[in-house]
Amino acid sequence: MCLAVPAKIKSIDGFEAEVEIGGVSRTVNIMLTPDAEVGKYVYVHTGFAISVVDEEEALESLRLLQELGETYSVDELYYSTGDMGPPSGSLADL
Known about the structure:
Elements: E1 5-13, E2 16-21, E3 24-29, E4 41-45, E5 48-53, H1 55-71, H2 74-79
Antiparallel strand pairs: 1-2, 1-4, 2-3, 4-5
């Protein structure tokens, strides 16, 4: 299963953007989203912004992800997908 996470764009430099995901800053490639702008939300997958999303949808997606994290244990989230288990560190580090 693949998962894209909404992130807010804080700054842009060429094809790289600094985004915030859950209070953590990351650099992502925005080459696939030419309409990306500072202040907008994008869905991020494997280090690439794959689409621009409106704020309402982004916040709802973040709320649902938070609810999912509060509902299931790390073991339930990983083992139910057939993965061997979580990477080292905590789920919050992802």
